[in-house]
Amino acid sequence: MDMEKTERSESYCPAPAVPVAAVAGPPYADCLECGEPTEYGVDTPGVVLCPVCEWQDAQRTACSG
Question: What global pTM score does this model have?
């Protein structure tokens, strides 16, 4: 049984400390609500929100029936 644990731990590959997208990628637009970086590039047209603000906006519009 100890051998199984050893084999599993040797095949384990830890995640990188910094996400690859954070190191290299296009310049990201700032959220219009909170100013945090978004998942969208700076050339994205329209209202650009971060994931948290997008979720909050969806909650507000869903309940405004």
Answer: 0.54
List residues bridging with 30 in a β-sheet.
37
Q: Could you give the residue ranges of the DSSP H alpha helices within the chain?
A: 2-10, 20-23, 51-62
Instruction: Give the span between the Cα atoms of 37 and 20, in whole angstroms.
Output: 15
Tell me the two tokens of residue 59. 């909650």
The answer to whether 25 touches 16, Cβ cutoff 8 Å, is no
Contact 20, 8 (CB under 8 A): no
What are 9-41's pLDDT values in tens digits?
566 667 656 554 454 567 899 999 999 999 999
